[in-house]
Write a structure and sequence with these properties.
Elements lengths: L3 E5 L5 H9 L4 E4 L2 H8 L10 E4 L8 H7 L2 E5 L2 H14 L4 E5 L16 H11 L3 E6 L8 H14 L4 E3 L6 H6 L4 E4 L5
Parallel strand pairs: 1-2, 1-8, 2-3, 3-4, 4-5, 5-6, 6-7
Length: 191
């Protein structure tokens, strides 16, 4: 199946963003809501096929702005955030695709739900928060073989009938694709 290239545009200057748009790239990933709003709000009217993914941590006080701007939220990682997103999507009448961020390496410094808690969290997100969970996302530890993390994410997805896997970045996207990634988040290799 085709793999979506999510061009990670955070901190990129306008001329590089313009070059990517001119080349036909329409799916972009951003880490911060404020930064993304400044960069993309005005471009939306010129590029109606633009699709924005939030790929960085989301604070609950930024949920309203995130739901307004983004098309996919890849960072659902805790019940409080899931609940806030569910309420805001109803309020704005925008049902966005949501991915659950899984902390496959169980690293303390990283966001994401622990692998063993993911099944229950998916049920919570779907049934209680009323989110449209269409994918899972992970960022493997830099000092470990990425393939085992991608395999774990794929196993969790299959068990929960989730088809989208956002995994793989500039250094490991080929491995991620081999393990079934439906989208890869590439920044430095593009820009």
């Amino acid at each position: 199946r085709p793999v979506t290239l999510v061009a990670v545009s955070k901190r990129q200057p306008d001329d590089r963003i313009h070059a990517a748009l001119t080349a036909g790239q329409r799916v972009f990933g951003e880490n911060r809501v404020q930064e993304a709003s400044a960069r993309w709000a005005s471009r939306r009217e010129f590029y109606v096929d633009l699709k924005l993914h939030l790929i960085g941590p989301l604070q609950t006080n930024k949920v309203s702005d995130a739901v307004k701007l983004f098309d996919v939220i890849e960072v659902v990682d805790r019940p409080k955030l899931a609940g806030a997103l569910g309420v805001e999507m109803i309020r704005q009448r925008r049902q966005l695709e949501c991915y659950i961020q899984v902390n496959t390496g169980e690293e303390e410094q990283k966001s994401g739900i622990a692998p063993e808690e993911t099944d229950d969290f998916i049920v919570y997100c779907r049934d209680k928060a009323k989110l449209k969970i269409t994918g899972l996302m992970c960022i493997p530890p830099v000092d470990e073989e990425a393939s085992m993390h991608f395999a774990l994410l794929k196993t969790i997805a299959e068990r929960n009938r989730i088809s989208n896997l956002s995994m793989g970045m500039s250094g490991d996207f080929e491995t991620a694709i081999a393990f079934g990634a439906s989208s890869v988040r590439i920044g430095s290799a593009i820009f």
